Amino acid sequence: MTPIPLSLYIHIPWCIKKCPYCDFNSHQITEDLPEQAYVQALLKDLESELPAIWGRRLESIFIGGGTPSVFSADAIDTLLSGLRALLPLRPSMEITMEANPGTFEQERFKAYRDIGINRLSIGVQSFNAEHLSVLGRIHDNKEAIQACQIAKQAGFDNFNIDLMFGLPKQSIQQALDDLQQAIDCQPSHISWYQLTLEPNTLFHHSPPAQLPNNDKLWDMQQQGQNLLAQAGFSQYEVSAYAKDDQRSQHNMNYWEFGDYIGIGAGAHGKISYPDGNIQRYSKYRQPKQYMEYAHQANARSSEEFIKKENLLFEFMLNALRLKQGVDMSLLTERTYLPFSEVEKKLNKAVQKGLIEQSNTRIKTSDKGWDFLNDTVEQFI
User: Fold this and answer.
1) 74 and 166 share one domain
2) 87-117: per-residue pLDDT in tens?
């Protein structure tokens, strides 16, 4: 059996300001950042996870948040040096770090590149001043463009721009203007997704006025996808577009139901074991509590093994987001389910025209893509 790829997710939970749409585990900076203490907690946390993945090699690293770029290059360098001492890394592996366009972070881009970060994900969200204000972003249009320029000058030939559409009072033309500005910045990857009002966010409790209706959202999406395609960006996942096949290796591992270690406050992990069990876990969310428990080798706040009857749904929930689908072999290799146990539901979805199946691949059909939630529900 082909070994299941293993990635590492590192969560740095602080940010300068909490955005009203954000449902990630993030905490506004109110005092001096405990950089070195947090880095040491991360490494202790990783040490405690090693027995479950002993002998396996990392395929990618993603440092997310929060805003990881509030940490100094020295702190990130200490972190990466510690990781290399604990785990074997694939040569030239993708190491991504999220960053915001504020001037404070821009000055650090070259230092990040020098210590081994080779991919940035820049959280622009919009280039429109009015929309940036509504979204609670602390940067302006000029800083967003400058951040992309500085990233390229620092040697990042592989970087992503995060961009939203469906913003309050946003016209179709404004959405396309945002997208064109992102394209003009010449990233290798664009994550373009609709604003959603997630639970436990300020926007969910106090929704912004004049959100675009469904018809306008559909037009935005269709016209935006056409613009991206004309610019040479290929859609490979629901909200992910890559140029020259520079897909996010780390996110591909998620969508193909690979394994990942999660360290940091609120991080999640998924580990497959040789006996056929697959475990998910999460870490304590509050930074101080997380650091305390990490030093006790006990940072997991919850853990559970995925029930066998839920494995097919969990696999499809991820895999069917990929435009080109997945190899059939992954379905059995990564769920440990024999094909005979999934064949009935798969055939039913094919008969409904939601899934296309060949001898080697399964993928969402055009009809299934338009009704993705319904398609995924076929595998509950």
Assistant:
1) yes
2) 988 888 999 999 988 755 677 899 999 999 9
Q: What is the largest CA-CA distance in the chain?
A: 59
CATH number at residue 349: 1.10.10
Nearest to 141 by CA among 124, 160, 162: 124
Q: What is the pLDDT of residues 215-243, one digit of tens each?
A: 999 999 999 999 999 999 999 999 999 99
User: Contact at 8 Å (CB) between 352 and 370?
Assistant: no
On whether residue 73 sits in a domain, the answer given is: yes
User: Hey, CA dihedral for 213, 215, 216, 217, is it positive or negative?
Assistant: positive
Strand intervals (E) in the chain? 6-12, 14-15, 27-28, 58-65, 89-99, 119-125, 159-165, 189-194, 233-237, 240-243, 259-264, 268-272, 278-283, 300-305, 326-327, 355-357, 361-364
| 276: region left, alpha or beta (phi > 0 left; psi from -120 to 50 alpha) | left
Handedness of CA 226, 228, 233, 236 (dihedral sign): negative
- 280 domain residue, yes or no: no
Residue 83 contacts residue 40 (beta carbons within 8 Å): no
| Domains contained in the chain, number | 2
The closest alpha carbon to 174, from 130, 118, 136, 210, belongs to: 130
Strands 27-28 and 58-65: what pairing? unpaired
User: Is 265 contained in some domain?
Assistant: no
Tokens of 56: 């396996």
Q: What is the 3-state secondary structure (H, E, C) of 230-297?
A: HCCEEEEECCEEEECCCCCHHHHHHHCCCEEEEEECCCEEEEECCCCCEEEEEECCCHHHHHHHHCCC
CB–CB of 146/106 below 8 Å? yes
Q: φ, ψ for residue 198 (rounded to 5)?
A: -80, 145
- Residues 6+ away with beta carbon under 8 Å from 45: 263, 264, 283, 294, 299
How far apart CA 30 and CA 159 sit, in angstroms, is 30
Name residues whose C-beta falls within 8 Å of residue 181's C-beta, 6 or more positions apart in sequence. Answer: 127, 145
